[in-house]
Amino acid sequence: MKVAVIEDEKLAQREIIELLKQVVPGIEILTCLTSVAESVAWLRDQPEVDLLLMDIALSDGQSFEIFEQVSVDTPVIFLTAYDEYALRAFRVNSIDYLLKPVEESELRRALDKYRKMGRPQLTLSLDDIRAITKVDRPVYKERFIVRVGDVYRHISTEEVAYFYADEKVVWLVTHKKNKYILDHTLNELETLLDTRRFFRATRKYMVSIRAVEHAAKYFNSRLKLTLSPPSDDEILISRVRVPEFLDWMAHHP
User: Taking the model in full, what pTM does it have?
Assistant: First the structure.
């Protein structure tokens, strides 16, 4: 199977490629594209590709713009953070999609569906797709700009393990254990981030679901969190917030 991945976040690219290799040994990843423009240029050469895995939100627009500029007869599995209710029509119309972060079981299911259907074609018009994805929803922050010396770089929210406050400084900690100072308060971050993915665990900590290794019962009906990478502080979920936290753990995207 020859596959092209269209995804602008490098971390998400690496994760989906690793999952593809686990699920389909011997799979050939032809290319990883990061924008509408790159994708259009590549597809215009009419490459021999069996399947496209395509993020909806790319660095220079929505991936649906690709179909307006070049003819695509290759089946597509969309990668998206949109909710299942809004996109239920995709599956009904022989288009599949995977909610990010992508789970191995969901990828297996989508690829099994692809194999059984042969080469399914796009049966929704572009207007239909736009109507589905224009359901009103909050727009969450996707990246932060941080400074290291005289150099600025961007950090995707997918790279963030947790945020914590130390005195009047807020730090961003990545899954790779890098730390950066942010010009935001934790209260501001609660309004900027998708609270399905990030939880205000304590007054000092806001954690990503991917950073929570486990939560253990603790004195006085509280929960003690173990994070990855580890934090220097003891992070305790108060008794009154335990139900909210467990519900968040159970229903994160």
Answer: 0.50
- Residue 187 maps to a domain: yes
* Closest among 83, 126, 90, 81 to 110, alpha carbons compared: 90
Comparing C-alpha atoms, which of 211, 241, 236, 209 is closest to residue 224? 236
CATH of the domain at 246: 2.40.50.1020
DSSP label at residue 38: H
| Cis bond upstream, residue 101 (ω within 30) | yes
CB 226 within 8 A of CB 216: yes
Q: Is the peptide bond before 229 cis (omega within 30 degrees of 0)?
A: yes
Rounded CA-CA distance 34/51 in Å is: 16
Q: What is the pLDDT of residues 108-133, one digit of tens each?
A: 888 887 777 665 555 555 565 555 55
Q: For residue 252, what are its two tokens?
A: 């994160």
Indicate left, alpha or beta for 57 from its phi (over 0: left) and psi (-120 to 50: alpha): beta
Is 138 part of any domain? no
- To 5 degrees, how large is the angle CA 216–CA 253–CA 145? 95
